[in-house]
Amino acid sequence: MSKKEKHKFSTKSWGFQLLLAVLVSIILLALVVLSLRLFTRHGKEFEMPDYRGQSSEMLTQTHSKEGFVFVVNEQRYEEGAKPGAVLAQDPMAGEKVKRGRKVYLTVAAAEPPTIKLPELREIPFSQAKIMLESQGLVLDKVIEKPSPYENLVLDVLYRGHAVGSGIDIKMGEKITLVVGKNINVLPDSVVTEE
């Protein structure tokens, strides 16, 4: 080999440096891809079991065989549900997930939360009904009272007593609405002047 050819691939030549940089880059890229496959556990997925109805306390204190981590994300009151029972989960049952995944639980609260009664007077009955339901309250009765304002809420009753907006009341409580009924015929005692 001539002196010129030896110099061409010596450790100080730019051709050798370029070849070395390319080889090191390929090796580093291969290491990154392999470590990502190990870190993400590529190909090792489990089907998410259904935890609904189970005790959230038991789930959060123990570890599943798949290594899931259980986190109580939300408490919601549901009539008839056992307090502490799982009502919903994320990810949902049947989804493919990896070992060690966090599972967010929605759990049944022991008692209904307290809310502020919305302003229901002087609005249409249909709107008042929607507002009651959206707050988790129950429309118990509708009492019709003669009024020139058809279907307008005249009064709000809770446990038989008139109440105003803003009082604390538990979700699921029953509310009675007094609603105006149109007067078609005025009594004879009322005289209208022309």
Produce a short descriptive summary.
Helix content is 25%, strand content 29%.
Describe this structure in words.
There is one protein chain. The protein has 194 residues and is an alpha+beta fold. The chain has 4 helices and 11 strands, in the order ααβαβββββαβββββ. It has helices spanning 3-8, 14-39, 56-61, 125-134, and strands at 45-47, 69-76, 86-90, 96-98, 102-108, 114-116, 138-146, 153-158, 161-162, 168-170, 174-181. The chain has a 4-stranded mixed β-sheet. Strands 2-5-3 form a 3-stranded mixed β-sheet. β8 (153-158) and β9 (161-162) form a beta hairpin. The longest helix has 26 residues, at 14-39. It is elongated, with a radius of gyration of 35 Å. The protein starts with a helix and ends in a 13-residue tail after the last strand. Residues 185-194 have low confidence and may be disordered.
